[in-house]
Amino acid sequence: MGRPRILLLGGTGEARLLADALAAQGNGDVLLSLAGRTEKPAAQPVPVRIGGFGGAAALADFLKAGGYDLLIDATHPFAERISANAAFAAETTGIATIALRRPEWQRLPGDHWREVRSIPAAIEALGPFPRRVLLATGRQGAHHAEAAPQHFYLIRSVDPVEPPLALVNVDYVIDRGPFTLEGECTLLKRHRIDAVIAKNSGGAATYAKIEAARLLGIEVMMVTRAAVSTVKTVETVEAALAAVDHLFPPAMKRGV
User: Residue 256 — pLDDT band, cuts 50, 70, 90?
Assistant: First the structure.
C-alpha cells in the first residue's frame, strides 16, 4: 500500500495543527475540506477544498470515488450536521474514521452557568425583563435574538451578520479569537453586559469570555453539546496523530 489518502474535515485550530503535523511527517496525502462559512479562511499547509458535499450519501460517494483510506472529522464541536454525515459515511463505506473533539469547558467555583440545549433556549432563559447580552455564538444563530427584542444584544462574529437583525437594541463586533482576559473584561464592562450566551466549545481561544464572566459575576447561558457520535473520538492533535500511526504504521505509509 502507498501513502494513505486522508480527508480531513476542518474549520478549527486543531484541524489546522493536525494538517500541519500530517504534512510535516508525510503521514499520507491530505485533503482539507472547509465548509466555506468564513469569508477569509486562514492559509493552510495542505491542499484545500471549500464547500459542502451535499449530504451524507454524497460524502460517502466522495470518499469512495477519491479512494480515501481515512476520514478525520475535526470540525467545530457544534457542527453537528457534518459530524452526523461523517458518521453515516463512515458506517456505509467502512472507511476508518476518527473524530477530533477538544474537551468541553468545566464549571469552576465562581461560575454562574445555566446550561441550555440550544441558542433559542438560551434566549428564552434570559427572561422577560430587559438585559444586556453578549451573544458570542457567531453569526449562524444570531437571528434567534429577534424572538426577544426587549434585550440589548452585543453580537460578536468573525464575519458580519447578514442581513442585520430586525432589532433596535443591537450592536455588532467583528473579531476573531484568540481573545485575552483583559480585553474581554473591558468589553463586558464597556457595554454593561449582565449575561453571556456561549457555546461550550472548549479550547483556549475563546475561553477568556468565560473567565471574564466569572470574575465580573456575570451569568452565562451555556449551550451544551449534542450527544457524542459513535465515531472513535480523540481529544488532542497528538492523540489523533497516534491513531493515524496505529492505523497506518510508518512502514506501510512508505509503501515498504
Answer: very low
Task: Answer positive or negative: Cα dihedral of 27, 29, 35, 39.
Answer: positive
Query: What backbone phi and psi angles, to 5 degrees, belong to 114?
Result: -120, 110
Residue 33: is it exposed, middle or buried by C-beta count within 10 angstroms (0-12/13-18/19+)? buried
- The grid cell for 193 is 453586559
Mean pLDDT for 183-198 is 98
pLDDT above 60 for 102: yes
Mention every residue, 6+ apart, whose C-beta is less than 8 A from residue 232: 97, 98, 99, 243
User: Which residue did the predictor score with more confidence, 186 or 176?
Assistant: 186
Give the dihedral sign, CA 243/249/252/254.
Answer: positive
- Quickly tell me which residue has 499520507 as its cell: 28
Q: Give Cα 220 to chain centroid, integer Å.
A: 19
Burial classification of residue 125, based on how many CB atoms lie within 10 Å of its CB (0-12 exposed, 13-18 middle, 19 or more buried): middle
Is pLDDT at 41 greater than 90 in this prediction? no
Separation in Å, CA 155 to CA 27, 46, 172 = 40, 33, 5
H-run or E-run covering 181 = helix 181-190
Average pLDDT over residues 111-126: 96
Q: How far apart are CA 178 and CA 131, in angstroms?
A: 26
